[in-house]
Amino acid sequence: MAEAHQARVQNVIEDMVQSLEKDHIRKMQGRMFRCSAECCDRSTDSMAQVHQCIETCHTPLAKAQGLVTSELEKFQDRLTRCTMTCNDKAKDLFDSGAKEPAVRSLMDRCVGSCVDDHVNLIPSMTRRLKENLDSIWQ
Fold first, then answer.
1. Where are the chain's structural domains?
2. How far apart are CA 119 and CA 133, in angstroms?
3. Model-level pTM?
């Protein structure tokens, strides 16, 4: 993927992840630490009970992080498949005798279209992630 296209996708994804971290993940981390501290305050519980309590406190955050990671992997896989299709089209054009500038032009337009399409998916992916993150701790 051309550097400009790659930078564009990376910037939009970074903005989304920072927003999710600030508005959702950070709050979940605070709840997890407060919950874990309360587990440690249980002076009558056994060590195993305290450890189990702490594990229970960590579960929602682990689910949230897994959810975000999974969505980002699916997004990356889709974008990769799209750019691989562009590579195939460029190779086919080159094999048919087209000159390098025409192939480069096709590749740039095709990858640009992939990036546009996938950047347009980010708002709905963000909305879905926020809804799922909100439901995890409840």
1. 1-137
2. 21
3. 0.83
